[in-house]
Backbone:
């Protein structure tokens, strides 16, 4: 189990770091971006390992990396998207998208439709997780002001 966590942290953290560099995130924020991606990757792998399924694992990972993005954005005084976009990319269902395109090329359209539904569903689950955290944070700060 510990090797699973270490591998998830390293792979997601390095992928996020690579995209943060590609998106020209400032040097002092690269560590926080990589840490956000590592936390999202760890949450996904641990949840999936314990049998929560593809959708729920992605939802929990999206909530975790959204929370980290909100916290680090306030700490670094930068927009949330600085960390969120880079950390979200390793969770994007690229494997299912590849299989869908492969099935289209091979002519197995029914299987391609199944993969496209899974791809769209995972993207929606990730979006809902991000929107949930963003809404809760906004409501918290709005209530705190009053």
Residues:
């Amino acid at each position: 189990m510990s090797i699973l966590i270490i591998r998830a942290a390293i792979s997601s953290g390095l992928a996020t770091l690579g995209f943060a560099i590609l998106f020209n995130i400032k040097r002092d924020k690269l560590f926080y971006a990589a840490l956000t991606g590592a936390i999202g990757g760890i949450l996904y792998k641990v949840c999936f390992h314990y049998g929560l399924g593809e959708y729920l694992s992605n939802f929990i990972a999206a909530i975790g990396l959204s929370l980290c993005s909100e916290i680090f954005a306030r700490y670094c005084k930068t927009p949330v998207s600085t960390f969120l976009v880079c950390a979200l990319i390793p969770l994007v269902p690229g494997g299912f998208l590849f299989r869908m395109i492969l099935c289209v090329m091979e002519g197995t359209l029914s299987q391609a439709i199944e993969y496209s539904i899974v791809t769209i569903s995972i993207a929606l689950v990730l979006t809902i997780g991000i929107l949930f955290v963003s809404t809760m944070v906004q409501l918290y700060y709005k209530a705190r002001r009053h």
Summary: The mean pLDDT is 92. The CA atoms of residues 18 and 86 lie 8 Å apart. Helices lie at 2-22, 30-49, 53-76, 81-88, 94-106, 109-145. The first helix runs from residue 2 to 22.
